[in-house]
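Bench log. Compound arrived from synthesis this morning; before running ITC I wanted a structural hypothesis for how flavin-adenine dinucleotide sits in the protein. Inputs:
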Amino acid sequence: MTSIIDKPLATRESALEQLDAFKPKLGHAYAADRNFDNGPHEHLSVSTLSPWVRHRLILEEELVSAALGSHSFAASEKFIQEVFWRSYWKGWLEMRPQVWRDYELSRDQDLADWEGKSELQEAFTGNTGIACFDFWVRELVETNYLHNHARMWFASIWIFTLRLPWTLGADFFMQHLLDGDPASNTLSWRWVGGLQTRGKTYLARADNICKFTRGRFNPAGQLAMDAQPLDGPMAPAPKTLSFQNPVNPDTPYVLIVTEDDLGLESLDISPKSLRQIIYVNCSEKRSPNGISPRVAGFISNAMSTAIKFANEMDIPVSKCDPGDVNGIINTVSASGVKQVITPFAPVGPAQDVLGVVEDRAIENNISFTRLARSYDRETWPYATKGFFKFKEAIPSLIARLGIG
Ligand SMILES: Cc1cc2nc3c(=O)[nH]c(=O)nc-3n(C[C@H](O)[C@H](O)[C@H](O)COP(=O)(O)OP(=O)(O)OC[C@H]3O[C@@H](n4cnc5c(N)ncnc54)[C@H](O)[C@@H]3O)c2cc1C
């Protein structure tokens, strides 16, 4: 058996096939084996579906539904909770967008301050002398995926053993991960460093690495023995989320598609009134250094396949550069339509681009709706505190959303 991550085809069909093949493992097997990192080409105890979920080629609720369709809630609870971690992080950041802005500012400052420093170059090239870390650097760069446990060890070694700025490690992940995601990535790095759950850090230990890599690595004597929380501002209080109401299905509209939600067939919109698609790929903005060619290729293929239906329906598609707001607005105006709809893009590069487009659309008397899915509207508001509180709401969320 191989995993989808070994040959990542950017289509919804391949994600559905992987989910189907992984179904038998969504219960007790996942809970028992998910923490083992068996190494590249052997990631068979986790789904490896995150790149597809990240871009919504497959939906969180489809993962939960597959688990509940083949196992009891009790047996699949661990898997379901992991799926809800993504929803929790997204909701948490959506209510505190300043945390993303602060990350961007610190990252840019750290990039300038650390430019050319040899310690940083050794880490980026996998030449630190810590065999497991150097291996994960290569695995990340070559396969664009790391197991969750390896991500935790990696971030911990980066921060507490190598003493490098956490923002530069987070940025390295954003360049190379197929699932690079502002919420899950930034907040997980903050969590490891003790910024997210104040005072609580994650320390990578040699015996834990040895056990969960099944003896592939044992960095005894090479790792920091304690992890003092990093200094940083307190997270701001959560703002109240407000979502726009669904649009009038009979009014003609232009659909702006970004890489953040490619599940167009399950959006609550009427294809009947769709007049034009504008395709804006903002993924290069995940990092000031851009993204790796394989990640760029995956996203670009994912976007092309997601809008393939437009050809069949004879709907014109225009590709616009995210920096070319004039081009986007001119394309909308040329279509003669006065309404833009776009799937809600959470905090991150696509949301920033859409914010500028929205302002310009309104100046031009074009209405602009960011269409949030029911799943996000229902789950995100629960992310006001820690995951423990959020987790308690999972059974009622599943019932309210009719997943099962
Ligand atoms: C330092 C660090 C950085 C990370 N950066 C990212 C990132 O940029 N993008 C990203 O998608 N995830 C990130 N994660 C979370 C997690 O590692 C990945 O989502 C997970 O490893 C994906 O593998 P999988 O699909 O095999 O997960 P599975 O174990 O099969 O889980 C199923 C699904 O649940 C979700 N999920 C599982 N674990 C987590 C988690 N800890 N947080 C959020 N969602 C989760 C994912 O959608 C995943 O596809 C990061 C974690 C750490 C510790």
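What the model suggests: The chain is about 50% helix and 5% strand. The radius of gyration is 21 Å.
ITC booked for Thursday regardless.
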